[in-house]
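Here is a typical protein record:
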Amino acid sequence: MRQQPVIAVVGPTAAGKSDLAVDLALRLGGECVNADSMQLYRGMDIGTAKLTPAEQRGVPHHLLDIWDVTVTASVAEYQRLARELFAKIDVPVLVGGSGLYVRAAIDDLEFPGTDPVIRARLEEELAERGPAPLYERLRELDPAAAAAILPSNGRRVVRALEVIEHSGRPFSATMPSYDAVYPSVQIGLEVPRPVLDERIELRVGRMWAAGLVGEVRELLGQGLAEGRTAGRALGYAQVIRFLAGEWSEEQAFAETVRATRRFARRQESWFRRDPRVRWLPYDAPDLLERSLAHIAEPGAA
């Protein structure tokens, strides 16, 4: 086990995580490790607010642009790659808002295998009957897992039922815990909700102005719509519907803002449940100094 802690910068989208991570890496001689599931995809730059080389300010950034947009995301694969990097980097600064990816990197989290036959049967049932009956089955088989999954999240319900049938174990036995594999210091950026809502709308506006629609159009030629993960990403899914003629551009913009705000609330709820996260105001004038002070505290990891 590594002795130096992994530094994690977490929180909702549009909170300023990437900039703080670069500041910390520059001050500590560290390197950034991406924990944003959509920034793993090549070509998804504008819509994921991926830092440009200039914004990276010379700090090495890892686990960006590693998958084609047709690849289905694998948290297990991400976990393997992140931990390989932790073994090589003296001061890794993990940064991103994908809570499961952060936990996969630093905590004792296992990923059971898959069974394509079981998965296909459950997905067919989901398409025919909707998530409600599958969710009721999950409540009977594994109440703890059902309590942690939204009834409307059919994809997650299918995965839980697949694991139960394939492994013979409760899905809840594989769900995230706070048992760390690596010592870590986690800094969360706290943004008042009205401010965050405004920042999200401004960010979406900047993405549109920077050419998000053109980026999506280009990625469609590379199979974006067929990608089970990338094609559902915030902004990308909405622009796909605009380009398909289902929505107006104004509707796609508004839906992107709305969906991103909803997603930010889920992110905050996820990270708030982790008692190890030290929350700091996103706009504190001494944010870097306060973050460094927390990292240096005895027992912080």
In short: The first helix runs from residue 17 to 28. DSSP finds 13 helices and six strands in the chain.
